[in-house]
Specification:
By secondary structure, the protein is an alpha/beta fold. It has 15 helices and 18 strands. The strands form 3 sheets. A 6-stranded mixed beta sheet has the order 3-4-2-1-5-6. It has a 6-stranded mixed beta sheet with strand order 7-10-11-12-9-8, with no helix packed on it. The protein has a 6-stranded parallel beta sheet with strand order 15-14-16-17-13-18, with helices on both faces. Helix 6 links the parallel strand 5 and strand 6. Helix 8 packs parallel to helix 9 and helix 13 crosses helix 14. The chain is elongated and about 75 Å long.
């Protein structure tokens, strides 16, 4: 067994954790590799104040407290003062660090504008006192609170965001689900190109070193030949199998009366209508057709193809403005105000011949096959042969996404919809959102697909407002 690499003699990093880091990721104590951690007493007090209730924050606060209790079980006061050794990480070349709990009062005079009775200012005073007493270490505050990091910088304290849950360094690196072919692609690959028909579908087999960056079920298109839109069915090193996408532009190939209006929408319908794809993620700005396409595909497969028993819709209940408070009624009635986008799109899909009575009958039929559920009651459930839509997924954490997607049983399809530019929940960013997380983690799986929708298809007013405002 190779020897563990001992920390060098350069100044150590001494991380002072804010409460919100523990409530965001209860297992964060194990994420700092060989570095030491300090937990101010005010952090434990705040955890205690936030542990009650059934929210995700309360659950995380209780979990963080249990983890800390496991660390100090059997430890004496002098052991706690010296720092408790954290468990050795698996497959790591570093020794683990220590976690220090505040066992004595640390005083430091803050400026008069920062009274010391506020929790954030208490953490700042603690960090300044540690800077003074621990000259051998580089003291760094880790917090999800931007204002605390700003105040720390003003006082000369190093402060960082908690970045272990960051999926990507830059949102521009996020997988888009499509690749444009080079101008000379066909000439460069013509010698080893194969094509054939199978059950009315056209397939291609291409070989080349530039195929290694392709992903399963990715859209491959040629700008010069707009008719060429293919899906990567298999990719194995330098060899790939392509299947021509189905054409949903024409009215006789519509999905529940809906046709694709652009390349990305056509590919989205290919993903949504493919029974071999169990997980689909659609990103896009408002008005790109995410919800309408998803609902149309769901209704076609539930009512026409009978591939799934029913549609289940859920979303994060994060308000855009002030919360309207408690709502009366059943679970589904409470969720109705949050499902305005769903109802708007159902009106479009239920519009047809038959007059007012025909539309009313269609609406009743659709509502009987579409169930609206709250995220709060998803834990422990299993969905069998369901078409599950997770709307506004950008407001979910990676753990919430995992809890939801793992509810899928045999024959279930999960579709995640969202706009990364419209995150309304605290402590989540474009690079730490659960939607970003699943797009990045599922891109290599053979039974998943993703596409980023670009063109807005609402109205000229909406398009102009999105561009100019």
């Amino acid at each position: 067994m190779p020897n563990k690499r001992i920390r060098d003699r350069s100044p150590k990093r001494f991380f002072v954790l804010d409460t919100n880091v523990l409530m965001h990721d209860p297992s964060c104590l194990y994420r700092f590799q060989e570095h030491d951690i300090f937990l101010p007493m005010v952090v434990l007090e705040e955890l205690d104040q936030n542990k009650r209730g059934h929210s995700e924050v309360a659950r995380n606060a209780r979990q963080a407290s249990r983890i800390m209790e496991d660390l100090i079980v059997g430890a004496k006061k002098k052991d706690i003062e010296k720092g408790i050794k954290l468990p050795e990480p698996l497959n790591s070349s570093y020794e683990s660090g220590h976690v220090f709990f505040q066992t004595r009062h640390l005083t430091y005079d803050l400026p008069p504008s920062l009274p010391g009775n506020m929790p954030d200012n208490n953490i700042l005073a603690t960090a300044l006192a540690l800077q003074k007493s621990r000259s051998d270490a580089k003291v760094i505050i880790v917090s999800k609170d931007i204002n605390l990091r700003i105040k720390a910088a003003a006082l000369g304290i190093l402060a960082e965001d908690y970045q272990d849950d960051q999926v990507l360094d830059d949102l521009s690196l996020l997988y888009t689900g499509k690749t444009e072919l080079d101008e000379n692609f066909w000439e460069n690959h013509a010698k080893e190109l194969e094509s054939w028909m199978e059950e009315g579908r056209t397939f291609y087999k291409v070989t080349g070193d530039d195929l290694e960056e392709w992903y399963p079920n990715e859209l491959i298109y040629d700008v010069k030949d707009n008719a060429f839109q293919a899906m990567v069915r298999e990719v194995n090193g330098v060899e790939a199998k392509l299947e021509m996408c189905r054409n949903f532009y024409r009215s006789h190939h519509s999905v529940w009366g809906i046709n694709a209006r652009n390349r990305e929408q056509n590919f989205a319908l290919n993903l949504l209508m493919d029974p071999e794809i169990d997980f689909v993620s659609l990103l896009g700005n408002a008005g790109t057709g995410k919800t309408l396409l998803t609902l149309a595909a769901g209704l076609a497969q539930v009512l026409d193809d009978q591939r799934y028993h029913e549609i289940i819709v859920t979303r994060a209940t994060v308000p855009m403005g002030e919360d309207i408070g408690f709502l009366p009624g059943t679970e589904e009635e409470k969720m109705v105000p949050w499902m305005g986008a769903l109802m708007d799109n159902l009106e479009v899909l239920s519009t047809g011949e038959g007059g007012e009575w025909g539309r009313a009958a269609t609406n009743d039929l659709l509502r009987n096959r579409i169930k609206i559920h709250s995220l709060n009651y998803m834990r422990g459930r299993t969905f069998l042969k369901k078409y599950v839509i997770i709307d506004e997924a950008q407001n979910l954490t990676s753990k919430q996404m995992k809890s939801l997607i793992t509810r899928a049983g045999p024959g279930t399809k999960v579709v995640c919809l969202g706009n990364i530019a419209q995150i309304d929940t605290p402590y989540l960013t474009e690079t730490t959102s659960g939607l970003t997380y699943v797009v990045d983690r599922f891109k290599n799986w053979q039974n998943s697909g993703h596409i980023t929708l670009i063109s807005g298809e609402r109205s000229r007013l909406a398009d102009f407002a999105a561009e100019i405002l």
